[in-house]
Task: inverse folding
């Protein structure tokens, strides 16, 4: 029997349409030494029934199931990590899927050196119905995953590919459960703190499928912008150690990505305004001007 090295932690909230495929993707791993810790975060649908059925159907798998009142994914991950037995923690959300070699290749990457604390990889995108949207095209893979590049959003992380040493969870203090970070920044905040104490390595291939969510795109843009600004405020003292330029660049990146989001939502006036603010904060990035012009005329 393979040594238990990895704990998958899976927060679940109203995921009845996706959780079965998520669980099956973990069952199909080429590396066998893992457990699954599922935290039902107050689901009101049939997620629990589907999970318990899967557990009964797969007695050979080591699965811990627990539930809590709805407190958000950060709290669910913290609960799961605290009871995890694995040397490594692998993140996976209930609507995403791990590809078969995810653990095998992540373990090989993280065990290259004791200095490596976290590994991540690329993803295939799928739509809400599971339809293939292709490989995510990335232009950040050669950039160092440093604090400076992470806070300015020059390096990105796909949550369903992230795996880290459990020992670092205690060192950096787990996931911040603040509601102000909801909107996709809980992960980046956690990874920022890991980057201060450990190396981060990128595996240059897709190791998971990431589901694109439905919903109001413009509302999501505003929510994400607020969370990203809060993240900068939280790490303001550390940012100041690198100088004012890093702070301005970080803020500029928030408005630049908001501009992209509003442009995709068809809200051109809002998009142009966000690009303009981004340029005012950090005029050393001429590409922002090109995006602003495109938003106005294309």
Result:
């Amino acid at each position: 029997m393979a040594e238990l090295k990895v704990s998958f932690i899976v927060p679940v909230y109203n995921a009845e349409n996706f959780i079965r495929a998520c669980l099956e993707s973990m069952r199909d791993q080429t590396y066998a030494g893992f457990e699954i810790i599922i935290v039902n975060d107050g689901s009101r649908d049939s997620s629990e029934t589907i999970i318990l059925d899967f557990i009964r159907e797969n007695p050979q798998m080591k699965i811990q199931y627990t539930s809590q009142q709805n407190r958000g994914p950060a709290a669910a991950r913290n609960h799961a990590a605290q009871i995890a037995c694995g040397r490594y923690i692998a993140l996976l959300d209930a609507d995403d899927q791990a590809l078969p070699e995810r653990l095998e290749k992540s373990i090989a990457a993280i065990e290259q050196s004791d200095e490596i604390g976290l590994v991540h990889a690329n993803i295939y995108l799928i739509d809400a119905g599971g339809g293939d949207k292709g490989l995510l095209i990335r232009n950040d893979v050669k950039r160092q995953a440093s604090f400076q590049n992470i806070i300015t959003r020059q390096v990105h992380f796909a949550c369903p590919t992230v795996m880290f040493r459990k020992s670092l969870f205690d060192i950096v203090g787990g996931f911040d459960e603040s509601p102000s970070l909801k909107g996709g920044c809980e992960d980046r905040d956690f990874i920022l703190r890991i980057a201060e104490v450990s190396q981060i390595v990128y595996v240059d291939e897709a190791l998971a499928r990431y589901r694109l969510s439905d919903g109001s795109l413009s509302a999501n843009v505003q929510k994400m912008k607020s969370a990203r600004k809060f993240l900068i405020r939280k790490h303001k003292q550390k940012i100041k150690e690198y100088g004012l330029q890093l702070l301005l660049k970080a803020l500029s990146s928030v408005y630049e990505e908001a501009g992209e989001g509003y442009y995709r939502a068809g809200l051109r006036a809002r998009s142009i305004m966000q690009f303009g603010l981004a340029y005012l904060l950090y005029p050393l990035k001429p590409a922002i001007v090109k995006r602003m012009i495109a938003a106005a005329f294309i």
In short: The CA atoms of residues 75 and 177 lie 6 Å apart.
